[in-house]
């Protein structure tokens, strides 16, 4: 009886993991994934450079954005990445990164990063690390999907301002409850096998 229960626990844990992975919109740092979409411009304005670095290129006054919609995962409490501005001239550009509740795009769930940049050593001409920290005061209980958006806007008419994004964080891990259930099942099977061998 105990053995059947443990086998069922393992099967339920595995099925739960497969179901989550099959239907969930999991966050990915892979810019070649179709999860990333370009808005207010052409897909050709985004390319993946060597090392998996994403690059947005804009040459007009409209904001150009790169976005991904993904399911909220309680194991995520922040996102960390590198940003770099590559200007064509000494003109200015506005660069931002933020995460909002996709069901209510006016609701920001993290402190956004926004910077109006000029050509100086103190700006993002060299890579700058950015951490978006999830707001602990925000109520995630009614949140199912989030949207991460990177934006670059060329504030002059000079061509080919670029924003480069380089992730250095790992993807979210499976829900703890699923891993605990699966772990207990596997440990129980091992113990049952051990008792059988001793007999």
Tell me the series of helices and strands, N- to C-terminal.
HEEEEEEEEEEEH
Low-confidence stretches: 17-22, 169-178
Q: Number of DSSP strands? A: 11
Structural class: alpha+beta
Q: How much strand content do the residues show?
A: 35-45%
Helix content: 10-25%
Give the C-alpha Rg. Answer: 22 Å
- Assign an overall shape: elongated
How many helices? The count is 2
What fold name goes in the CATH topology slot? Jelly Rolls
Find the CATH superfamily. Galactose-binding domain-like
Architecture, according to CATH?
Sandwich
CATH class: Mainly Beta
How far apart, in Å, are the first and last alpha carbons?
A: 18 Å
Main sheet overview: 6 strands, antiparallel
General description of the model:
Helix 1 (2-23) runs antiparallel to helix 2 (176-198). Strands 1, 4, 6, 7, 8 and 10 form a six-stranded antiparallel β-sheet that branches. Strands 2-3-11-5-9 form a five-stranded antiparallel β-sheet, with no helix packed on it. The chain has helices spanning 2-23, 176-198; strands at 36-39, 46-48, 54-58, 64-71, 78-86, 93-101, 104-108, 113-117, 128-133, 145-154, 161-167. The longest helix has 23 residues, at 176-198. Helices cover 23% and strands 36% of the residues. It is α+β, with helices and mostly antiparallel strands and 199 residues long. The protein has a single domain (28-169), classed as Jelly Rolls, CATH 2.60.120.260.
């Amino acid at each position: 009886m105990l053995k059947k229960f443990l086998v069922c626990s393992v099967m339920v844990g595995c099925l739960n993991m497969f179901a989550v992975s099959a239907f969930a919109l999991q966050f990915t740092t892979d810019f070649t994934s179709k999860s990333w979409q370009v808005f207010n411009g052409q897909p050709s304005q985004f390319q993946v450079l060597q090392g998996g670095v994403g690059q947005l290129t804009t040459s007009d006054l409209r904001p150009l954005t790169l976005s991904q919609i993904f399911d909220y995962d309680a194991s995520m409490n922040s996102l960390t990445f590198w940003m770099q501005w590559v200007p064509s001239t000494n003109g200015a550009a506005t660069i931002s990164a933020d995460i909002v509740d996709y069901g209510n795009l006016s609701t920001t769930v993290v402190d956004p990063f926004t910077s109006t940049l000029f050509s100086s050593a103190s700006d993002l001409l060299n890579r700058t690390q950015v951490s978006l920290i999830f707001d602990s005061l925000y109520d995630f209980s009614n949140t199912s999907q989030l949207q991460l958006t990177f934006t670059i806007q060329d504030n002059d008419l000079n061509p080919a301002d670029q924003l480069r994004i380089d992730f250095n964080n790992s993807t979210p891990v499976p829900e703890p409850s699923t891993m605990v259930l699966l772990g207990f099942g596997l440990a129980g099977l091992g113990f049952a096998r051990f008792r059988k061998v001793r007999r």
